[in-house]
From TrEMBL:
Gene Ontology CC annotations of this record: outer membrane
InterPro entries with a match to the protein in the record: Autotransporte_beta (IPR005546), Autotransporte_beta_dom_sf (IPR036709), OM_autotransptr_brl_dom (IPR006315)
Name of the protein described by the UniProt record: Autotransporter domain-containing protein
Domain Autotransporter residues, every copy: 1-87
Origin species: Escherichia coli DORA_A_5_14_21
Length: 87
């Protein structure tokens, strides 16, 4: 954690992970259109970065971005933000 001169505390973070899906025969039937195979098997990488900040003892917030890509699956960039208020 980094403490700034105004009393604010900031914590940057990084996350990298590998996800493995073993199921490769997930048959699905939709109405009478026949069967299709929803095969998401394989490995993919997940990458995330963000920052958490404490503005005061009762107010904090966070920002984060993430991306995932791998065999047959791609999750485009996404972002999340939030504020926490304790009372």
């Amino acid at each position: 954690n980094m403490r700034l001169g105004n009393g604010m505390e900031v914590e940057p973070w990084l996350k990298a992970a590998v996800r493995k899906e073993f199921v490769d025969d997930n048959r699905v039937k939709v109405n009478n259109d026949g069967n299709f195979v929803n095969d998401l098997s394989g490995r993919r990488g997940i990458y995330q970065a963000g920052i958490k900040a404490s503005f005061s003892s009762s107010l904090s917030g966070h920002l984060g971005v993430g991306y995932s890509h791998g065999a047959g699956v791609e999750s485009p960039w996404n972002a999340v933000a939030g504020v926490n208020w304790s009372f």
